[in-house]
Amino acid sequence: MYNKIELPFEYNALEPYIDEETVKTHYGKHLQTYETNLNKALEGYEEYTKGKTLDQLIKNLADLPEEIRTAVVNNGGGVSNHNLYFSILSPNAKKSPEGKFLEEINKTFGSLENLKEELTNAAISQFGSGYAFLVKDKDSKLSIVKRVNQNSPVMDDLIPILTIDVWEHAYYLKYKNLRADYVKNIWNVIDWGKVQGLYEDCHNI
Ligand SMILES: [Fe+2]
């Protein structure tokens, strides 16, 4: 069994930037469906999942029987991507990283503001459903990537540490077609303390 994370805040905690109804539906319905469908697809394949984290499954797709790979990409990616998304949002978001992580950001992007601008542009320009991510590679180098649908950067040996979900279900109830407004506002609730924790985590997938 692979599970969605416990939501680390109340449904209405991200108001006014992300509204209560959206969090309820997004976490309680959309993410729940990915979790349910993932576990259903993996029934009878316990020998392949035993002792493996979800990200290990996603990263080593070729080790899985072909008939379940698509379900693992779509529903497993759906659980993994959403778990990251909900884990880095907070009503008491720390507004800036610090220390070595901030140094690495400055080195790679010039400044935190530049990084935020690049990530904002990546999220706004992702065509159709998908995500923009801040990722680190095996040498802890940072970069920004976009992915379509529920594809995860984990599939490409990258470790995602921040993500912006730009599926319409993430913003449409409040923002309708104005994805850019949602992406600009989400910075108010992205917790750099949590992102920094993931950057500093040496644990490999
Ligand atoms: Fe989503």
TrEMBL record:
Species, as recorded: Clostridium sartagoforme
GO terms of molecular function: metal ion binding; superoxide dismutase activity
EC number annotated for this UniProt entry: 1.15.1.1
Record-linked InterPro entries: Mn/Fe_SOD (IPR001189), Mn/Fe_SOD_BS (IPR019833), Mn/Fe_SOD_C (IPR019832), Mn/Fe_SOD_N (IPR019831), Mn/Fe_SOD_N_sf (IPR036324), SOD_C_sf (IPR036314)
Family statement drawn from the similarity comment of this UniProt entry: Belongs to the iron/manganese superoxide dismutase family.
Residue intervals of the Manganese/iron superoxide dismutase C-terminal domain: 97-196
UniProt keyword list: Metal-binding, Oxidoreductase
Substrates-to-products reaction catalysed: 2 superoxide + 2 H(+) = H2O2 + O2
Record-listed Mn(2+) binding positions: 26, 82, 165, 169
GO CC terms of this entry: cytoplasm
Entries under Pfam families matching the protein: Sod_Fe_C, Sod_Fe_N
This protein's name: Superoxide dismutase
EC main group: oxidoreductase
Regions that span the bilayer: none
Residue intervals of the Manganese/iron superoxide dismutase N-terminal domain: 2-90
Role this protein plays: Destroys radicals which are normally produced within the cells and which are toxic to biological systems.
